UniProtKB/TrEMBL annotation:
<feature type="transmembrane region" description="Helical">
    <location>
        <begin position="198"/>
        <end position="217"/>
    </location>
</feature>
<feature type="transmembrane region" description="Helical">
    <location>
        <begin position="413"/>
        <end position="432"/>
    </location>
</feature>
<feature type="transmembrane region" description="Helical">
    <location>
        <begin position="66"/>
        <end position="90"/>
    </location>
</feature>
<feature type="transmembrane region" description="Helical">
    <location>
        <begin position="127"/>
        <end position="154"/>
    </location>
</feature>
<feature type="transmembrane region" description="Helical">
    <location>
        <begin position="324"/>
        <end position="342"/>
    </location>
</feature>
<dbReference type="InterPro" id="IPR024671">
    <property type="entry name" value="Atg22-like"/>
</dbReference>
<keyword id="KW-0813">Transport</keyword>
<dbReference type="InterPro" id="IPR050495">
    <property type="entry name" value="ATG22/LtaA_families"/>
</dbReference>
<dbReference type="GO" id="GO:0012505">
    <property type="term" value="C:endomembrane system"/>
</dbReference>
<dbReference type="InterPro" id="IPR036259">
    <property type="entry name" value="MFS_trans_sf"/>
</dbReference>
<feature type="transmembrane region" description="Helical">
    <location>
        <begin position="166"/>
        <end position="186"/>
    </location>
</feature>
<dbReference type="Pfam" id="PF11700">
    <property type="entry name" value="ATG22"/>
</dbReference>
<protein>
    <submittedName>
        <fullName>MFS transporter</fullName>
    </submittedName>
</protein>
<keyword id="KW-1133">Transmembrane helix</keyword>
<keyword id="KW-0472">Membrane</keyword>
<keyword id="KW-0812">Transmembrane</keyword>
<feature type="transmembrane region" description="Helical">
    <location>
        <begin position="21"/>
        <end position="46"/>
    </location>
</feature>
Length: 450
């Protein structure tokens, strides 16, 4: 391809319409990420597991003895290890098909179905709930891989930070809106004639319906595009996909800046994902707050994060994405440090901690996505974003495993969450080594680093 060839079509109006449709991918999947993965699933699974063995008992599975309090961390760990294997292959498949929106919707609906089946998580069936969550989490990540690969196709490089940040803002707005409804249902479950357990299960079911319904908007609103610049390999679709994956992994050495960023992202995003996955458990089990209080705090996080994502996007336009991401990483270091000493049952401290998470949460993730897109050669968007999400979800087991092991050794979530500061320090140091202008040049993209 010519160095001067644009990576998206120049017509602004159709592109704007597609961008608006694309925003709803974040709006849809955030229902699962907030209500289920972020707030309700982990503490509820712990309760089901404790009901099966008692608070002082241990779960026995495949010869392993597992503390109920560590079970969600190990479930997420298994899910992310599986995704490390599956997502790169998915990226190769997605780059070879002209029907990315069908893949997007298909994975979303499969994930929504698995989420809906969590309604039947009750009694002592912790293993069933664990398996359904793993399926839902894998499908959710697969849908996001495809969605992110569409971002460079519907936006110019100059638009990328803004479009990515607005997408994240939509995600926090959508997830927060449903979370507000679920917050009311869990908080006032007695007035509604519901038990706490039934209110939680209905909330997880509502996330499945939300996810399945709103994904129709990008499915119908984004047009498919023929694949370009794929590697010529022999065989059927699966064989060609493995062949392209092998070629891309080999070719990645030609893009050392992209590789350095992926290593940096592996560490600092591990910390972010583990804080998100463990926040509700920390609030309920360590600080002693009720589920309704944690839901309300998480709602605050969603509200603040919506503005944080937009604010970080604007700051990136002025100072550059790399500097703003580094500032966010410093913020995360402060958050895990404060979590080590925040008093039990002190609501104001917990709310301030949640607000701080909201400020840095959306911005760091949105800018990481758009920043990495600058280093991707044309025609390999899905495959490179699959590597990105293999790091995002597939290798984030480092963080959850660290959290689970430290908890098991100390019987406290405070040192477990503070231990994550190592991931932010290492990730920040690696990000300092990323040369933005050189990475853009290596990928053959047009935009000059600002």
């Amino acid at each position: 391809m010519s160095m001067a060839e644009p990576i998206v079509e120049p017509e602004p109006l159709p592109r704007t319409r597609e961008q608006r449709s694309w925003y709803y991918t974040d709006w849809a999947v955030s229902a699962f990420q907030t209500t289920v993965a972020g707030v309700l699933f982990a503490p509820y699974l712990i309760s089901v597991a404790e009901n099966a063995v008692g608070e002082q008992g241990r779960l026995e599975l495949l010869g392993l003895s597992i503390a109920p309090g560590s079970l969600p961390s190990y479930v997420i760990t298994l899910s992310t290890v599986l995704s490390a294997v599956l997502y790169p292959l998915l990226g190769a498949v997605a780059d070879r098909t002209a029907h990315k929106t069908r893949l997007l919707a298909g994975f979303a609906w499969a994930g929504a179905l698995a989420t809906a089946l969590l309604f039947f998580l009750e009694g002592e069936n912790w293993l069933f709930g664990s398996l359904m969550f793993i399926v839902a989490n894998l499908c959710g990540g697969a849908a996001v891989v495809v969605s992110d690969s569409i971002l460079p196709l519907i936006s110019t490089e100059a638009e990328r930070d803004r479009v990515s940040s607005v997408g994240w803002a939509y995600g926090y707005a959508g997830g927060g809106l449903l979370l507000a409804v679920n917050f009311a249902m869990v908080t006032f479950h007695d007035a509604l004639g519901l038990s706490t357990e039934l209110a939680v299960r209905l909330s997880m079911l509502s996330a499945a319906l939300w996810w399945a319904g709103f994904i129709i908007i990008p499915w119908r609103g984004i047009r498919d595009r023929a694949p370009v610049a794929v590697e010529r390999v022999e065989g059927g679709l699966l064989a060609r996909s493995f062949g392209q994956l092998a070629a891309t992994l080999k070719d990645l050495r030609n893009y050392p800046v992209a590789l350095t960023f992926l290593l940096a992202y592996l560490f600092f995003n591990d910390g972010i994902q583990t804080v998100i996955a463990s926040a509700s458990t920390f609030g309920i089990k360590e600080l002693g707050f009720a589920e309704g209080t944690v839901l309300g705090t998480y709602l605050l996080v969603q509200f603040v994060a919506m503005f944080g994502a937009v604010g970080f996007g604007r700051a990136a336009g002025r100072f550059g994405a790399k500097k703003v991401i580094l500032a966010g990483i410093v913020g995360w270091m402060g958050i895990v440090t404060v979590a080590l000493v925040v008093p039990e049952r002190q609501l104001y401290g917990f709310l301030l901690l949640g607000a701080a998470i909201g400020v840095v949460l959306g911005g760091t993730q949105a800018l990481a996505r758009s920043y990495f897109s600058l280093f991707i050669p044309r025609g390999k968007e899905a495959e490179y974003f699959s590597l990105y999400h293999a790091v995002d979800r597939g290798t984030s087991w480092f963080g959850t495993l660290t959290f689970g092991v430290v908890y098991q050794l100390t019987d406290s979530y405070r040192p477990a969450i503070f231990a994550l500061i190592v991931f932010f320090v290492v990730g920040g140091l690696l990000l300092l080594r990323v040369n933005t202008a050189e990475g853009i040049r290596q990928a053959g993209n047009q935009r000059l680093a600002g």
